[in-house]
Design goal:
2 copies of one chain form a homodimer. The first copy, chain A, contains 5 helices and 5 strands, in the order E-H-H-H-H-E-E-E-E-H. By secondary structure, chain A is an alpha+beta fold. Chain A has a 5-stranded antiparallel beta sheet with strand order 1-3-4-5-2, covered by helices on one side. In chain A, a hairpin with a 5-residue loop joins strand 4 and strand 5. The longest helix of chain A is centred in the middle third of the chain and has 16 residues. The first copy, chain A, starts with 22 loop residues before the first strand and ends with a helix. At the A-B interface, helix 1, helix 4 and strand 2 of A face helix 1, helix 4 and strand 2 of B.
Amino acid sequence: MTRSREPAGDDRLYFDDLQVGQRFSSATHVVDAEEIKAFARQFDPQPFHLDHEKAKGTLFGGLAASGWHTAAITMRLQVESGLPLAGGIVGAGGEISWPRPTRPGDALRVVSEIEEIVPSRSRPDRGTVKVRSETRNQRDEVVQVLTAKLVVPRRATAAAQS
Amino acid sequence: MTRSREPAGDDRLYFDDLQVGQRFSSATHVVDAEEIKAFARQFDPQPFHLDHEKAKGTLFGGLAASGWHTAAITMRLQVESGLPLAGGIVGAGGEISWPRPTRPGDALRVVSEIEEIVPSRSRPDRGTVKVRSETRNQRDEVVQVLTAKLVVPRRATAAAQS
């Protein structure tokens, strides 16, 4: 996994630093067949994620990563280089889709955009941010879309003022 | 991971065997702290998933599994003992939420219910099934809700008739 940036505390963004339309781009991770099979053995042991030959006769037409593997790789990219949020990346949930599978050799990266910013009514120290993240391969094809609701802390000063 | 059942080809359910309201229940998997940290090191390296002490001062108040780890464990339970679908479990996407975190020692199981059944207009050999799956701990508290759209093959005979 490529580490392009590890933001220190001061570089990280608080709720108050974010705005709708703001975009972020992660580093790239190249997925290999061994990695696809290792994840599948542990979490999604189905023929189309485990075996090149057996995968040919399935809906996937060849070895494909588990969607949950694509989601996990996406999270790693977001944590290490994608979304430099204060307090880390804490999600309450969201919508996920896999328009096409991740294949061996795919170079994945994540492009994110802030879609909504909602201060908490009950908790002046935080807010909720809706982020749409596309995970794209080396041909710029989208392999995953995740629209997630994240909990982001406010700056101490901003919280004290509100 | 407990393997309670590995359905053979004939036991597996086709699109035509499913009905709205049908319920399925998986085996149980007990999650330990080492497993939580190992997943986090690989895919979600944040303090609240990696370290008991550091997790105490965070939103989680103690070590918690990555939501993607809960999702991956849920998938394993579904594949091995939860949803005996012909063609395997192939998801196009869905909605996911984590009402509370998975903690070390939690015994997780998945309870699923078929919510919608939609034959494909363009492909007589398959259909889409909406399944709501709750992942519950040993106190019957819900740690994850996933409402997924799955692609399920029709029986050859049914497809030929339609």
